[in-house]
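User: structure tokens for this one?
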Amino acid sequence: MIRVEQGSAPLIVSIPHAGTDIPEGIHGLVSPDLARHDADLYVDHLYAFARELDATIVRTTVSRTVIDVNRDPSGHTLYPGQFTTGLCPIQTFDGEPLYEPGALPDQHEIERRRAEWFDPYHLALALQIERLRAAHPALVLYDAHSIRSVVPKLFDGELPNFNIGTNDGASCAPALTQAVEAICDASPHSRVTNGRFKGGWITRHYARPDEGVHAIQMELAMRTYLIETSDTWPPPWHEETAQACQQILRPILTACIDFAKAQA
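Assistant:
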């Protein structure tokens, strides 16, 4: 369920939400389709080119409905006062219930899922950070996400194409943020930094810029690489649109590597 592809460049691409697997033993869901509705569709496929940059990729194939590996396991909300989903979500981003009445996962079930899928993901990330920090004076942890362009319960209107999150500047050096921003701003797409999405638990938890671990989150509006439609879901992979997006993402990841190497 946890997939790690090791590279030697000072870059880790974390993909926590592209999984759609619903393992055996997950009971009480309204439907498997609904449980997969909020996946970061095809993000693993979108960033597959990172292997060519010698980056390390860490991802899970498990649906975020089973357990969200980008949530604070203590239950602390990352966005006080705003709607968000928890460690084991019980509703979709649209507020639809994910479980049948009386079938919500109890604390024992949440702990079981944490031990089986959450903890191994974070062990994998920690081990890759340790491995690369032993070889490089600095590295970038790039947390890759996407979301539907319009989700009224989460944000007003249409989300910008590129949503950079650095925990209000605390998770990485300004030079890294500026390098990523410049590439986004040179594209034909819209960009915001630390808007609705400031970085999830992965970005905030692992960031130690003073110790050479710089973390940044990229939340893509899905229209940036897919043809979104309200008629059918999920939309199919759209090669032409995805390739146009990759022409922007490739220099972004390259800039992350160059930034890390420059810290020597």
